[in-house]
Amino acid sequence: MFIKKTSAGLCALAAALVLGPAQAATTDFTVNGELVSRAQQEQLIRATTERGQTRTPQLENQVRMILVRDKLLLQEAKKQKLAQRDDVQRMIDNATKNILMSTVINDWVAKNPVKDADVKALFDEEKKRWGDTEVSVRHILVKDEKTARELLKSVQKGADFDKLAREKSIDTLQNRALGGLIEWNSPNMFDKDFAESFKNLKPGQIAKKPVKTHLGWHVVKLEGRRPAQRFSNYQAEAPLLRQLLTQQRVQTYVDGLIKAAKIEDVKAAPAKK
């Protein structure tokens, strides 16, 4: 049967469809006589939707079940008098201390925010220090010059640099797994002598002699050279630089508290005769 809807009826239906999902379906309820308020449910729902999840009846029910679970576990803990146990008391005490210490830091940071001008100044400084060129370098690190020279002769005769680096290098496991590859980095970030070894090389060339650094002896190959891409975009780098400045200033704040504190050793009580 065809049913003709009035214009007013269609408007009411449309309003119900639009407003329905947004209307809160939460209500106060109790678990074994203990109240779980609608406000508690709404707070958890809001925290979830702020992370991108859509509010649905399923989400509301999920939140309700989470709060039921939490309430039941807390009731069990109370029934078993767990808060009176020494190990639980220590954990509660440690958690309380951590919360208070974090709050002190967070409040200080909120009152002393890093200025945009300071972030930009650090960006400019780091960009200058980084330089306008990046290189990709491969190396084989060994303990002594004799071994380095033997490996250099091998690669000069056509031995696989990648394979020798995996087998002979004493660098980190990660670097060995990459065949000695150090991907795009600034020459300014390397040991001075190491950077000099590939300064005049063309991509694909191997340094004519091993180079010594504080790590040992290196056989060096230049894989590539390009204009610097790091610090080319201020907006991309700013969040990390802001975080770095914040950490530095928090450390300065804590150091100031330590410096101003009166710290004294407690003298041991004299032994009883």
What is this structure, in a nutshell?
By secondary structure, the protein is α+β, with helices and mostly antiparallel strands. It has helices at residues 7-19, 38-49, 57-79, 86-111, 116-130, 145-156, 161-168, 173-177, 192-198, 234-260, and strands at 29-31, 34-36, 133-142, 181-185, 211-213, 216-227.
Describe this structure in words.
This protein has 273 residues and is of the alpha+beta class. Among the domains are: 13-80, no CATH class; 124-227, Chitinase A, domain 3, CATH 3.10.50.40. It has 10 helices and 6 strands, in the order H-E-E-H-H-H-H-E-H-H-H-E-H-E-E-H. It has helices at 7-19, 38-49, 57-79, 86-111, 116-130, 145-156, 161-168, 173-177, 192-198, 234-260, and strands at 29-31, 34-36, 133-142, 181-185, 211-213, 216-227. The strands form 2 sheets. Strands 4-3-6-5 form a 4-stranded antiparallel sheet. Strands 1-2 form a two-stranded antiparallel sheet. The N and C termini lie far apart (108 Å). Residues 1-23 have low confidence and may be disordered.
